[in-house]
Write a structure and sequence with these properties.
By secondary structure, the protein is of the alpha+beta class. The chain has two domains: 2-203, BirA Bifunctional Protein, domain 2; 226-370. It has helices at 9-12, 16-22, 58-68, 105-123, 162-166, 170-188, 206-279, 304-396, and strands at residues 2-8, 48-49, 78-86, 128-134, 141-146, 149-151, 158-160, 284-286, 299-301. Helix 4 (105-123) crosses helix 6 (170-188) and helix 7 runs antiparallel to helix 8 (304-396).
Length: 397
Amino acid sequence: MANVQKYTRSDLGGGSLTRHYERAKDGEGKYYTFNNQDIDPTLTHKNYNLAPIRDQGQLSFANDRIGEVKCHKRDDVSVMCSWVVTVPRNPKKPDGELGELVLNLEEQDRFFEESYKFLCGKYGEKNVISAYVHLDEVTPHMHFAFVPVVVDKKKGHEKVSAKEALGWSERGLNKFHGELEAHMAGVFGRDIGMLNETTKDGNQSIDELKRGTAVEIMQSARDQAAQIVRQANAKASKIVSEGQARVDALKKQRNALQGKIEGLEAALQSKILAEEKIAAIPVVVSRSMFGSADGSKDKVSLLLSDWENVKKTAIRGARSIAQEKKNSSIAKSLDKREQSLKIREDAVTDNEAGLNAQRKRADHWVSQARTYEANYNRVLNELNQIRNRRRTQELDL
């Protein structure tokens, strides 16, 4: 397919368009990409120019050619036109991806050569500024730039007139695409799809032709961001759920150990009370006439009921000593488990913080994709307004 754009003297400016065609290099020897993210600088060396080499440079050649013919000095006069001829593709795939190119590499070379011959036949090779073939973008294409020179039908001299050179009307552009399609069908012996949904309505700018792909890329970015968010949410839910289950289990163990501690404290309190009761038992001491001076042979008299209580307390005391040893081990185990619980609770908190950060990054990607799309649409709208103003001015001419 093919589309054409017209440019005034101010558009040519300092030669930014021609530098774009020839992929000029900057001061560091790197190729200019002109903010075009579709350009792959590693493939730029494969680009080539089918037009004669203009020793004075593209911009100087254009100015020289314009100076040789009649050209109005008005700012709105289009002094250069550029056809962008693109290798056709098959229809889009069901998943929305671009279709395959209909021509192989050898056929693509012939396609551009024949396109160049066809365009030279219409506009004259002496008016051609350059015809650079770009192979460093998603779809191979050629920029056929020329000065729109025609012969004045009344006066017989050459003049610059993009309107007459292009036949600037829907009918004229439809005719152009039909002629180009017929030419290519004769070259390749088959219909290679030069006429499609894009070209059947006459002409679209290169920005309009790229817009569909750009929107698809934005949609793909949004889909990927949404998928990341879903995956992050699922992962977060799983980690939080597992962490909560571990926390609940540890809390259950802690509660059980706490119950044991409370039981031990109750037993200790009971022991203290028992000792207090023993201390309160009335004791009657009797000493024999010939007893020892240190009282080692003194006798103690107790009530029988008090004696039974002393025996029971002694038995409980022995058991309590054994239990205290056991309880000491349980207390140490409890401390370790509480420490482990604290570590796991901290880990769950850290995981939740990490997942929140992932969610924020995913939200940022979605927001950035939407911003890119909004900016892209804004620029397209501005370009469309400029193009419509020029088209209106040319129709007035």
